[in-house]
Fold this sequence. Notes:
Layout: H1 2-13, E1 20-25, E2 28-34, H2 37-40, H3 47-59, E3 67-73, H4 77-86, E4 90-95, E5 120-122, H5 127-144
Helix pairs in contact: 3-4
Amino acid sequence: MGAAFAQARAAAERGEVPVGAVIVRDGRIIAAAGNEPRALRDPSAHAEMLAIRRACEAVDDERLTGCDLYVTLEPCTMCAAAISFARIRRVYFAASDPKGGAVENGVRFFHQPTCHHAPEVYGGIREGEAAALLKAFFAERRDALPNSGM
């Protein structure tokens, strides 16, 4: 999870929402990414999506059987679907996302009858650290907004 946090902090430094992800196979990181939707002008460039793409390239397969995903924020519906399609074995995430998450919150994607593959899920790992990183990022953005005079 430490490597995922490093990716999240790097994303924040680039002005992206601080979410980071790494994919591990056999105890070795095979892919890592931080959010890049702004830089890539791509709404699908979430940390999980980029890490999945890079891991698939690294193993030369569209399936990531035997791989585990570590991510600093509960995956959204789009990312949960990609995790399922990639056949990722386990998902470890830090902070829950009551508004946009789709694993423990929202649609609870892996519990739907239409979900083809449900990984093992472990949430709340270093949750306070992830929540603090996100809160600080958004507080800084709010503080930088010009005063509306109200």
